Amino acid sequence: MKTLRLILGDQLSHAISSLKDCNPESDTILMCEVWDEATYVKHHKKKIAFLFSAMRHFAGELVQSGFRVCYTKLDDADNAGSFRGEIRRALAGELFDRIVVTFPGEYRVLKDMEAWAEDFGVAVDIRPDDRFLSSPEEFSAWAAGRKQLRMEFFYRDMRKRHAILMNGTDPVGGQWNYDPDNRQPPKDGIKIPKPFSVPPDEITRSCINLVAERFGDHFGDLEPFHYAVTRDDALKALDHFMTERLENFGTYQDAMLQGEPWMFHSHISFYLNCGLLLPHEVIIRAEEAYYNQIAPLNAVEGFIRQILGWREYVRGLYWLKMPDYARENYLGAQRALPWLYWSGETKMNCLRQCVMETKAHAYAHHIQRLMVLGNFALLAGLDPDEVNEWYLVVYADAYEWVEMPNVSGMILYADGGLLASKPYAASGAYINRMSNYCKNCSYKVAKKNGADACPFNYLYWDFFLRHADVFRTNPRLAHTYRTLGAMDDEKKDAVRADTKRFFRMLDQGERV
Length: 512
Ligand code: FAD
Ligand code: DLZ
Ligand code: SF4
Fold this sequence. Notes:
By secondary structure, the chain is mainly alpha-helical. The protein folds into 3 domains: about 5-125, HUPs (Rossmann fold, 3-Layer(aba) Sandwich), CATH 3.40.50; about 135-195 and about 245-320, Serine Threonine Protein Phosphatase 5, Tetratricopeptide repeat, CATH 1.25.40; about 340-505, DNA Cyclobutane Dipyrimidine Photolyase, subunit A, domain 3. The protein has 22 helices and 7 strands. It is globular, with a radius of gyration of 24 Å. Bound molecules: flavin-adenine dinucleotide, ligand DLZ and iron/sulfur cluster (SF4). The site of flavin-adenine dinucleotide has 27 residues, from helix 10, helix 12, helix 15 and helix 17.
């Protein structure tokens, strides 16, 4: 059967389901750089250059393996500009009996694919994306009948189902979770390894030039560019993490240091999410590192939980709840995203650091995304649509299936607590404990009120005062509301007055 096989930019895996029975004699593999995908949100320049280069390298490898590849570059004269346009063009040029494609990472793309059979009058086979360790159907069976969808229980099931870090039916070491040993503040003089780095080759260079020319008005720095764009190099990046960083991953998972964007994180989300690395192989490598005594259990379990737990869980939640999930706004947040998220122009040093590192690298580590950028978005009541769009634009690992649950569920509580049992809200004290940002800030973290007080301090209390109807009865917030109950009216008035002043300045575009 003569088949047209479409490979999307985040499907760069040789073992992908759409290639499983590919016949090099009769089939054509279609890959296309299209304007619609590069601009449906205005992705970070580095993200576009990374993905185009990875796509071009992957297409080259397919050709080397003897497959017939039809590759459309962005600037090709007859580029139709969209997946559907490129499919139509391919079908006009040659007769195919069917189209084969792997299940996509975004709902809008799935809806488009589902219409192709009728629109083009050809059979369309949308195959499961079996690179994930749990299918949307399995997740929905797990979720059925549960009032709360807590990641921790999903994760334990995944550990058992895939026999990862298991001793028969018990978790290795006797505990499912080693968080109490993790999440230490950064130690003075801590030495952080340099990140893995690959110099751009000719293909990457031409993608960088293309992006500079065509996407100059997009956010972010194109250079220096040091990411892997092939599976071979992505595997080297993984090796680098296993030998240099994994050992300290758990301990410093939540630590932040000025001028140190990479810390002890793995920096493999770009590669996992576009298919250069596979989650199962990464998990097995981490498990081996524990058994070979390269890294301790708290680090290995913590790392595996992110991939086998969180990554699979957010994808399950996305497909379970879309399309409604995109419209969730449980707290009625409506404030426009302030310009500082693009410019980094703020006196709040923590925010400035995280925005500027995001701009430079299309990367920030989890706790910067969650407890600085996300915490501010939650406390300031930023509109979920605008926050979702920002996160989708700025990170090179961002696709809607993973970005949206993290934003709407984890940081904004927009889903009403489906993902998080309480909002991830914190005052300046948390940021001060986990980083050295406050030492270089115009605001005083120890001050609770007044023009020079750390804004997180009063925004935190104002948030819980503002939303007392929603959160007062939450048992996990009992301590917070006990403290608020004991707060005198004068103090509450000061919190409200400071917040009002701060929001007025923010809304008027003044530097805060
Ligand atoms: P590490 O800290 O080394 O973790 C290892 C791997 O675990 C990551 O590569 C990633 O694949 C996985 N992982 C860790 N946490 C999560 C999580 N919460 N959800 C899903 N996978 C996770 N991750 C994305 O891949 N794409 C996104 O668009 C994205 N948006 C986010 C938005 C917000 C508001 C927050 C709070 C988190 C977001 N994350 C996202 C999750 C996480 O921050 C990144 O996966 C991580 O920072 C990537 O860096 P790393 O590879 O060094 O991760
Ligand atoms: C993110 C992205 C960008 C910037 N450009 C392309 C592209 O030109 N061609 C392509 O196949 N994929 C691209 N992607 C990734 C897609 O947006 C992604 O495959 C869908 O969102 C489905 O997850
Ligand atoms: Fe951020 Fe407040 Fe610390 Fe400044 S004082 S860096 S605003 S937490």
